[in-house]
Amino acid sequence: MTSKLTYMGAIGLTALSSVAAAPAFAAGTTAGTTITNTATVDYQVGGVAQGQQSASNNFTVDRKINLLVEEVADLTTPVVPGQANAVTTFQLTNMSNETLDFALTATQIAGGTASHGGTDSFNANNVRIYRDNSSSGTIGGWDAGDTMITGYIDELVVDTAVRLFVVADIPAGLANNAVAGVALRATAREGGLIGTQGGAITETTGANTAGKDTVFADVTAGAAGDAARDGSHSDNDDYTVQTATLAVTKTSRIISDPVNATSNPKLIPGAVIEYCIAVANSGSAAATSVVITDPVPGQLTFNAGSILLGGTVTGGTCDFNGAAGGGYAAPNVSGTIASIAAGTASTLVFRATVN
C-alpha cells in the first residue's frame, strides 16, 4: 500500500487541477486501468545544468463491485383474482467500475409481513423476469415487446441502470386484500463473453496486490437473506388483491290487494308484490357488469314494465327506486348494473301479482 501513496504528492497542482475538471461518475476510474506518474528533477552543479533525473510509479486500479436493486414507485401492485401478467417494477444499477453481468432471481416470500404491509398469504403463478426494451411500445412499462430474461443481464456497463419487471399470474378465487410478496435479487458476475453469463466473483482477501484486486462495496443490505458486501443486492415488492366482495339480500313489500287496495293490503290472490334484490359491495374494487337474474315463482305473474335498475339502499333498507331497464323472459326477470363501486350498493326492483 505504501508504494501506491509515496509518489502521489509529486503529481503536483497541475495534475490535481486536471483531475478536478474531469466529470464525476459514481463508479470512478475503470478497474484495471494503469495509472502512471513520473516525477522529474532538474539541477545544476557549479552553475552548469546537469542531466534531468526522473522516477516513475504506476499502479493498477482495483475493482469495486457495487450494485443497487430498488423497487420503482414504492407502492404495492393492485391485482384482481385470475389476472394474467401482473407486473411489479424494479431498477438495477451497475455502480461498479467495470462492465459486469448480473445473475437475476425472482422469489416469493413465505408468510410474514410484506414490504407494503399485510401478511403474505398466497403465491403467484408463472413468475418471470423481463428487461424493458426501449424500442418496444411502452418505455418504462411492461409490454409484449420487452425481453424475457433467462437468468442474467449481459454486459451491463458502468453507471448504467436498467428497468426490470417481475411478471406473474394471479390465482383465481382470492379474497380481497390477499397479499403475495416478491423479491428480485441481482448478483454480480464476471463480464465474460457477450451472450454468456460470466463466472462468480470472489472478493480479494489479505494485503493489496500489484494486480487488479476486487472489493465488494455494496454496503447496504437488501431484502431478507441479502447481506452487505456480498456482491449482490435485492429489494421487495408485493401484489395486493383488490376485488369486489358482494353480498346479496332480497326483500319484498305489499303494494296493494283487490279488497283493501293500498290500505293495509294483505297477501291474497290479486295482491301486488314488489321485490328488491340489493347487491352490496364491501370490497376495495368496483364490481362491473353485475347481472342479476330472478325466476318468478309459478304462483305469481310478472308485471310488465315494472323493472327498475340501479336503485339505492339507505341504512341497509332498499329504497325501491331506480331507472327503468332490464327484461323478462319467462320465468326470469334480469338486469345488468354496469358498476357497483366499493362501499356502495345497488338494486333491481320488480313487481308481480299473486295468482
From TrEMBL:
Q: At the top level of its lineage, which domain of life is listed? A: Bacteria
The record's annotation in Pfam families points to:
DUF11 (PF01345)
Signal peptide as annotated in the record: 1-26
DUF11 domain location is 262-354
**What are the protein's UniProt keywords?**
Signal
Give the InterPro entries listed for this entry. DUF11_rpt (IPR047589), OmcB-like_DUF11 (IPR001434)
UniProt-listed NCBIfam families: B_ant_repeat
User: What's the name of the protein?
Assistant: Putative repeat protein (TIGR01451 family)
Question: What organism does this protein naturally occur in?
Answer: Sphingopyxis italica
Q: What is the lineage of its organism?
A: Bacteria, Pseudomonadati, Pseudomonadota, Alphaproteobacteria, Sphingomonadales
